[in-house]
DNA sequence: GCGACAG
DNA sequence: ATCTTGTCGC
């Protein structure tokens, strides 16, 4: 009888001997995996902060006040040119109180499961710059455009037949590695972070069909929260229907130093639209910034 | 071997 | 991520 834990080492690498794609070699993937493993040792998935969650009735000085949002937009002219953006919102008013941008040329490609190695460096730079300057608006919590622990890396798994749902499922073991962009930024910046996914990253038997069924089962309320419980029994995050009648939910997961419960509550309070306001503002302003940059580049061409 | 694969 | 058109609603 095989011990299922032994499948742990079956980290299957696709050998890319293709010389064209030097930037995603298996050596790179190996380095990335090791780095994720190391950073994950510092991951905290429970509430770990000094501020408090404001209540409707009373406002305290120690309440959460400054919530950040980060996003990256790309040039349509040159896809390697990107604009990293950090915004900070006042949690009470949801108004933007700080914004900063940074242009970069990205050499690391997007590889599913390794988004952080492409996007985190720019965003961490902007955060670090803000912290260095002792800016009073430095965020107490950061929302990230991408997942937290809802992340499929390191499939230490086995297939089994789930008679209840009449489908085959993948069991994950405790050694499962889950460390998305939000975790990566959270640990590196030592900041509470929440991951916001706009589409579902398949983990532990969680597929669109399964989530859709769970959503349809709760049609009465305007704001729904569906725990994303995988076949193994682990809760990876929450699917949230943030807008009334919206078919497409957002996917919330713990990044760092926050529990899923607290994260969900805060995201709900910042949702004027489908996407929570810190992420939405970062996205809008980032696009705007790169659009103006491209307009300038066009004008210079004419000269 | 094939499909799937956050942004 | 980005490319796309119109359309509905305030």
Molecular structure report:
The protein has 303 residues and is of the alpha+beta class. It has a domain at 27-52 and 63-150 and 178-201 and 236-296: archaeoglobus fulgidus dsm 4304 superfamily (archaeoglobus fulgidus dsm 4304 fold, 2-Layer Sandwich), CATH 3.30.2170.10. It has 6 helices and 10 strands, in the order αβββαβββαβαβββαα. It is globular and about 60 Å long. The termini are far apart. The relative contact order is 0.16. The model is unreliable at 1-22 and 154-158 (pLDDT under 50). It binds 2 DNA strands through residues 71-76, 79, 82, 110-113, 115, 118-119, 145-147, 150-152, 180-181, 195, 197-202, 251.
Structural class: alpha+beta
Our estimate of the beta-strand percent is 15-25%
Strand order in the sheet with the most strands: 3-2-1-4-7-10-9-8
**Main β sheet profile:** 8 strands, mixed
- The helix content is 25-40%
CATH H-level homologous superfamily name of one domain:
archaeoglobus fulgidus dsm 4304 superfamily
CATH topology of one domain: archaeoglobus fulgidus dsm 4304 fold
Number of strands: 10
The CATH class of one domain = Alpha Beta
What would the average pLDDT be, to the nearest integer? 83
The stretches of 5 or more residues where confidence is low (pLDDT under 50) are: 1-22, 154-158
Radius of gyration: 20 Å
Q: Which overall shape is indicated by the principal axes computed on the Cα atoms?
A: globular
Separation, N- and C-terminal Cα atoms = 75 Å
Reported CATH architecture of one domain: 2-Layer Sandwich
H and E order? HEEEHEEEHEHEEEHH
Helix run count: 6
Subcellular location: Cytoplasm
Keywords: Cytoplasm, Endonuclease, Hydrolase, Nuclease
Pfam families: Endonuclease_5
GO cellular component, one term: nucleolus
């Amino acid at each position: 009888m095989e011990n299922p834990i032994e499948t742990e080492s079956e980290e299957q690498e696709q050998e890319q001997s293709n010389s064209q794609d030097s930037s995603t070699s298996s050596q790179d993937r190996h380095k990335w995996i090791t780095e994720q493993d190391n950073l994950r040792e510092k991951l905290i998935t429970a509430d770990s902060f000094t501020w408090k969650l404001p209540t409707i009735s009373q406002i305290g000085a120690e309440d959460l006040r400054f919530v950040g949002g980060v996003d990256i937009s790309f040039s349509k002219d040159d896809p390697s040119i990107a604009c990293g953006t950090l915004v900070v919102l006042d949690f009470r008013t949801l108004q933007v109180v700080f914004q900063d941008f940074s242009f970069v040329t990205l050499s690391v490609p997007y590889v599913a499961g390794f988004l952080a190695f492409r996007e985190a460096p720019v965003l961490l730079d902007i955060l670090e710059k803000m912290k260095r300057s002792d800016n009073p608006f430095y965020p107490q919590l950061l929302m990230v455009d991408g997942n937290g622990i809802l992340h499929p890396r390191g499939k230490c798994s086995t297939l089994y037949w789930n008679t209840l749902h009449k489908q085959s499922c993948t069991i994950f073991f405790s050694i499962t590695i889950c460390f998305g962009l939000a975790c990566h930024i959270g640990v590196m910046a030592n900041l509470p972070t929440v991951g916001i996914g706009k589409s579902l990253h398949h983990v532990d038997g969680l597929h669109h069909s399964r989530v859709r069924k769970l959503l349809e089962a709760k049609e009465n309320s305007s704001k729904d929260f569906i725990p994303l419980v995988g076949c193994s029994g682990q809760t990876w995050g929450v699917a949230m229907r943030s807008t009334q009648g919206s078919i497409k939910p957002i996917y919330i997961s713990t990044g760092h130093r926050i529990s899923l419960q607290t994260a969900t509550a805060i995201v709900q309070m910042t949702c004027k639209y489908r996407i929570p306001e810190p992420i939405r503002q970062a996205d809008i302003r980032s696009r705007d910034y790169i659009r103006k940059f491209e307009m300038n580049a066009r004008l210079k061409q004419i000269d």
